[in-house]
Amino acid sequence: MADKLNLGPLKSVRVDALVVLKICKHASSSHPQIVTGQLLGMDVEGELQITNSFPFPSTEAPVSDEKDAASGAAAAPRAKANTYYQTEMVRCLREMNVDANSVGWYQSASLGNFLNTNFVENQFFYQSSLNERTVALVHDTARSTTGALSLRAFRLTPQFMAAHKEGKFTVESLQKHNLTYRDILTELPLTIHNSHLLTNLLHQLDNPAPAPLTSLSFSTPMPLAPNFDALDLSIDPFLEKNCDLLLEAIETHYSEVNNQQYYNRQLAREQAKITAWQAKRKSENQLRASAKQPLLPEDEWQRLFKLPQEPSRLETLLNSKQIEQYSKQIDAFTASVSAKMFAVNQGLPRTEE
């Protein structure tokens, strides 16, 4: 039976509405701090069904250590201090006959800023140590405040998992695994599942008692009253912040490129020294051979010269993927604003006439 349930790759993720509400409440209550939590459920014929969740405990840190506190919260899923807490929570849920199978973890984010080393290390820990068929849910708190829920499911690709197991992200390793920044994560389609009782309730809320035709005011808001925010012509307030984040990511990428160029120059300089030393030693050995003297070792350069260590390309890959993420968000923001502007531009001449 277990083989039948876990057969084939993961195709989609189904999240219960109660789990979505728990994640949203946990993330919004601590915004802008990063929060993480555990996901529970089961895998049914390639569909990962998430039926429950619980948050990881957060440690109180002084204001001066904000960066350390954020880093600690992001690394909570693999922290040893939370192992006992997770074990006890799962044991209690199992005693209550609730799904207690670990199927991943979730993390909050702000404007898509979640691609970093902690995120990758957490997901690698889940896919390699706990359960290979796990996902990471990312809830964007800032984007969800505009009225559209932002919840996405990610997994690490097999190429990235193989490169991470080797522990090296050099140019040779990236070429060996055919790995680029587009091959770090794979996104799975996500759907939200409601129970039959909740679906019935939503249908009742969507069909309130009919109001008189003469009354056009919405002073008394209905449960699902029409939303006129979409008709607002102002530019999205998050567009400027996204542009700032994109510029910061580009500057980080430029710094990484400078580091790689510096390594290449150092390597070329050391290799030139080694080549000159080898040529000199070879000429000395020729002279000693003609004089019938013992030859000097030609591999002594390995002790005399030390080649610089190649920097890891992991940060460059993650930053490149983050730049792509920011670019897609800006494109989505400007698309809606441009459509409104074109619509208004077509309507203005008719109004003047």
UniProtKB/TrEMBL annotation:
Key words of the record: Cytoplasm, Initiation factor, Protein biosynthesis
Protein family: Belongs to the eIF-3 subunit H family.
Quaternary assembly: Component of the eukaryotic translation initiation factor 3 (eIF-3) complex.
GO CC terms in record: eukaryotic 43S preinitiation complex; eukaryotic 48S preinitiation complex; eukaryotic translation initiation factor 3 complex
Name used for this protein in its record: Eukaryotic translation initiation factor 3 subunit H
Any one biological process term the GO annotation gives: formation of cytoplasmic translation initiation complex
Record's function text: Component of the eukaryotic translation initiation factor 3 (eIF-3) complex, which is involved in protein synthesis of a specialized repertoire of mRNAs and, together with other initiation factors, stimulates binding of mRNA and methionyl-tRNAi to the 40S ribosome. The eIF-3 complex specifically targets and initiates translation of a subset of mRNAs involved in cell proliferation.
Location within or outside the cell: Cytoplasm
Pfam families: eIF3h_C, JAB
Keyword GTP-binding attributed: no
PROSITE patterns for the chain: MPN (PS50249)
GO molecular function: metallopeptidase activity; translation initiation factor activity
CDD domains: MPN_eIF3h
Residues of the MPN domain: 13-160
